[in-house]
Amino acid sequence: MKTMKKISLLLSSLSILLISFPSRGEIIDRIVAVVNSESITLSEIRRESLPAVQEIKNKYSPEKQKDKIKEIESKILDELIKQKLQIQKAKEQGITVSEENVTAAIEEQKKTYSMNDEQFKESLNKENVTLSEYRQKIRDQITIISLINHVVKPKIFFTAKEFTDYYNTNIDFFRVPETINLKEILVRIPEGKSSFDMISLDFEVSEIFKGKENDEGLASLAEKLKRKGISCEFIDMGVFKKEDLSQEFAKTFSMAKGSFSLIKSEGAYHIIEIADKKSESIKPFTEVKDEIEDILYNKKRDKIYQEYLKELEQSAYIEKRNLD
């Protein structure tokens, strides 16, 4: 189950998206590259580049389209060469992918995009892709993931110094800003109030707030307002950073926990309680060690993986032909 979860996450990172699987078209085919004993055809390039080419045609003028399309097709050819090399190497090393793993990955994709079986089939038909072709696409990608895990993962290790160095160098990344938890009694100003009514409401709300006893909370103030016939509601506003609040509300950051403030905004009065405050802090190393490990792992994995791809390319027979 853990292995399939990793496969599922990596499938997303390798862009295996059902909705973007390219359609087949009428193409006069020819070989555009040879990778060891296998070939890549022009039809493969055109199928893979179809979504990007359509976007280029919608975005650029006819004069610019040719160069942009050529650039896209060249990049796709390079990617297909890398895929071929990796799948060939995986076969050499006896890496295989079971039908069960392919099925599980497809089911995960359907779940991600909230597709039932019928919707999945309709999507394949719409893109003119057979189920067999789609399963092969998934199989190839899982094969590459398995190869990466087999070849790259054993080369990744860390020292204690790398962990502490990263923590100390990127200390601001682990800084937790000051936060404040605000609760309020909200008194909405009814529309159509006369000037006299507004003066009266302003006076009564202000007087109740000013007459607050030291140990009196929002609930007691709300009761006093209701006894005056003033409609109000209690709201736990939530936890905020200073930059989350408007200038008027941000002033509460200068007040102590347990303090109260009366703020008048457009259309309402707010009797605010500073329910809790947390000072700026830095997450301790022990709390973020796993996070640091993930960051370092990804950096090393990417570096080792790119080096491995270069080794495969240098040791292979690769012949690239003109795409025009």
UniProtKB/TrEMBL annotation:
- Domain named SurA N-terminal: residues: 28-145
> Which residues does the UniProt record annotate as the domain PpiC?
159-290
- Which Pfam family, an example, fits this chain? Rotamase_2
Instruction: Establish whether keyword Iron-sulfur is in the entry.
Output: no
Q: Keywords on this record?
A: Chaperone, Isomerase, Periplasm, Rotamase, Signal
Entry's Gene Ontology molecular function annotations? peptidyl-prolyl cis-trans isomerase activity
**Signal peptide residues on this chain, from the entry's feature table:** 1-25
Native organism = Candidatus Schekmanbacteria bacterium RBG_16_38_10
Q: Which domain of life is it from?
A: Bacteria
- What's this protein's name? PpiC domain-containing protein
